[in-house]
Amino acid sequence: MTGYILSRLLRAALTMLVTVTLVFLFIRLSGDPAAALVPPDAPQEVIDQYTRALGLDQPLWQQYLGYVGGILQGNFGFSIHTGIAVEETFLDRLPFTLHLGLTALCMAIAIGIPIGAVAAIRRGTALDRFVMGFSVFAFAMPNFLFGLVMILVAALAFSTFLGGENASVIWPALTLGLAAMGSFARFTRSSVLETINAPYMRAAEARGIPFGMRLVRHAAPNAAIPLVTLIGLSLGALVAGSVVTEQVFAWPGVGQLLVRSVATRDLAQVQFLVLVVAFTMVIANLIVDFLYLIIDPRIRAK
Amino acid sequence: MSEPNPEETAPPAPLLSIDGLTVALPADGDRPEAVHEISFDINRGETLCLVGESGSGKSVIGQAILGMLPHALPVTAGGIRFSGQTMPPQRDAAFGAIRSARIAMIFQDAGASLNPVRTIGAQLAEILAVHGVSKPARLPRVLDVLRDVALPDPERIARSYPHQLSGGQAQRAVIAAALLLEPKLLIADEPTTALDVTTQAEILALIARLKVEHDLSVLFVTHDFGVVAEIADRVAVMQDGVLVETGDAQDVLRNPQHPYTQKLIAAVNPTPRQLGSDDGAPILEATDVNLIYRSGFLGNRKALHAVKDVSLSISEGRTVAVVGESGSGKSSLARCLLRLEDIESGSIRFKGAEIADVTGAPLRKLRQSIQVVLQDPFSALNPRQTILSAIAEGPMIHGIAPDAARAKAMELIELVGLSAQAAGRYPQEFSGGQRQRICIARALALEPELLIADEAVSALDVSIQTQILDLFADMQRRFGFAILFITHDLAVARAIADDILVMKSGEIVERGPADRVFGAPEHPYTAGLLEAAPGLELFQQGSAA
């Protein structure tokens, strides 16, 4: 078990280091950052001045060490436009994204998993086909289109005020969570189907254990194992997934910040946000790995 | 518990009585009825063996007695009486609790019939809870039955998860679960089929002891007449949903009436094959082969010495059987010889040339000469590849023109006993035996000089096993390749091998000609294996005759 924990931690740390390196390289590969900052007709001296200011005249390895060292000290750089530390801007935006993303995830779990389980138990019925039809729709529906539909429905049918301080989180959350809801439903269905037909379920029936108890005590803990992976991945995709939805609903979160920073070539800000997206993925995976220790005794034994 | 006991008032009536039971199959089934007019009784304290192969309908009867028949399989005639009371065979919640207290069932795959994420103790206590046993009484009772089935250290077992138990321990735990409520009837559905022979012998002895101690009647479902010889009082033989023979176990074993029964009994005691020529040149020679599996990370590195200093030699036209229990390293040895594992040390020579460290193109060339047939013919074939393409693929990869490869594949399809129409079809349209024929044709398409068969008949019904073993021998006579046959089943080894190697914990403990090893084993482990093999009496009668 110690080996398991150590290996997961080491793997997470390695993934993060690789991510940092790749982000560093890609940003320098995609053209001269200094040239990208200034107007196209700027004289060479101005470009050189920016190059020096950004430290781009140093050898690559020195830049890399400086960059990694900065990250380790919590020094991520400053926005070129506002001069504010990039993590500060990010932290200002984070509550909005968390509010939206976690609401979306909760909705996806609260709706997707029960309908998937019901579809499995009522396999082959009209209900099953309806749920599966819905999940394909949910998964296939593009965010930007469904977002517009939601705005239309909310504004026209419910006369809801969608902008500003009092904006309801329900509509963007539904938009953001829809795809996850569909995949949760589908995954739950196949996972539950697999477990309810397992030999230990038949054995439990033969031992006189009632249906509801078989479902809750025997099927559910086993069916949950693959679902934890899926939910973990969705948790990791929270920040990345909010880009489109936040844009459509003018939601002042991290996704919107990312889009704006790319548009304004705010190098340090983009760099930081890409790292944040990657790190949430890594952390979510790490959480999943540790959750396995709790729910699956077979892994605990390793 | 308070109901009047019919035993005291009525003359001894059968505990279980099945009368003309007929169960229909859904319209798309391969026959109209799963079982047809089945009648038999089980008396108190009696063990009835219900013998049949897969698809014979024997598990449908088990389900009907437990009241677990799905509604897709309706009973169209007949019924079941259990201690004088009519029992509905269909799923019926009302009878669930009554039935499970008086009829218990144990299963073939004991490990899989326990919930993997809950401890043994919790699962057993739950059964007591469902049947109204008060909380403080549960744990003592659980430990009690675990002790009763002779599990060492019951406290530890109760805290264990199923994956922490061996196959034999898991089966004991499942038997303990069955005993918890002091049932009258125990239905055992192939409970020893997945176990090693020595473990099987222990479990059979355990069931026999518990039967006496707990005054149980046992319905023992099996395909193996060796097991029948060990434990049955009476036998009922089923074929395609019909009871073809019933009777006293000793009578049926000595004097089987129905040809199908005769065939099943013969499978326990096969006629030793005619020996292959022993003047052929050695094809494969292995010397001091060692294989170590390494796993783990940082602090908990593990090394498993799977094959230890194994030497063997196989000559053309000969069949060598490697016999051993699970975990003895016999499949690992096969993987070494197939060059699927890199060996730690030692040498493997194929027709005199060292092959232990060849790689790349020479290794690919070598693969043509050493082919393999695996245990599970269902997963060994790609479900989306036609039979013709599966067989012709190998020769085409090794440079035979597509037309020639297909022509050869067609020839082999007929040679292994399938019709030419089979060529265009997909694996799922074939039975297990037919699939194994296809796998053999696929291996032979490359004209190998050595065929390695890893438990190649273990997944098949006994009567099919005989056919496939005959096919191996037939093809060997025709093409002259050598066979290395890996098996846990002594009867199979006896049927096919010229020479026997007995493996235990990665080492070869005994080797020699088949008749000598079976007739006069030298190593105590071999003697133990033979001793544990069910139906030893049948064996001895057969060799004396």
List the main descriptive attributes of the protein structure presented here:
heterodimer; A: 302 residues; mainly alpha; 78% helix; B: 545 residues; alpha/beta; 6-stranded mixed sheet; 24% strand
Structure description:
The complex is a heterodimer of chains A (302) and B (545). The relative contact order of chain A is 0.14. Chain A has helices at residues 2-29, 33-37, 44-53, 60-72, 86-121, 126-140, 143-157, 170-196, 199-206, 211-236, 238-248, 254-263, 267-295, 297-300. Chain A is flat and about 85 Å long. Chain A is mainly α. The longest helix of chain B is centred in the last third of the chain and has 18 residues, at 462-479. The chains are: A mainly alpha (302), B alpha/beta (545). Chain A binds chain B through residues 2-3, 6-7, 198-200, 202-211, 213, 217-218, 221-222, 225, 295-298, 301, and chain B through 66, 68, 93, 96-97, 99-101, 104-105, 107, 109, 112-119, 126-127, 130-131, 161, 163-164, 174, 177, 296-300.
Question: Count of DSSP E strands of chain A?
Answer: 0
Q: How big is the Rg of chain B? A: 26 Å
Would you tell me the structural class of the helices and strands of chain A?
A: mainly alpha
Could you tell me how far the N terminus lies from the C terminus of chain A, measured between alpha carbons in angstroms? 5 Å
Gyration radius of chain A (Cα, Å) is 24 Å
Percentage beta strand of chain B: 15-25%
Helix content of chain A: over 70%
For the largest beta-sheet of chain B, the strand count, sense and barrel status come to: 6 strands, mixed
Globular, elongated, flat, extended or rod-shaped: what is the shape of chain B? globular
Question: Low-confidence stretches of chain A at least 5 residues in length (pLDDT < 50)?
Answer: none
Helix-strand category of chain B:
alpha/beta
- Proportion of beta-strand residues of chain A: under 5%
Intertermini distance of chain B: 53 Å
How helical, in percent, are the residues of chain B? 25-40%
Assembly status: heterodimer
Given the structure, what is the number of helices of chain B?
Answer: 21
Number of strands of chain B: 20
Question: Could you say which overall geometry of chain A the principal axes of the C-alpha atoms support?
Answer: flat
Largest interface: A-B, 28 and 34 residues
Mean pLDDT of chain A: 86
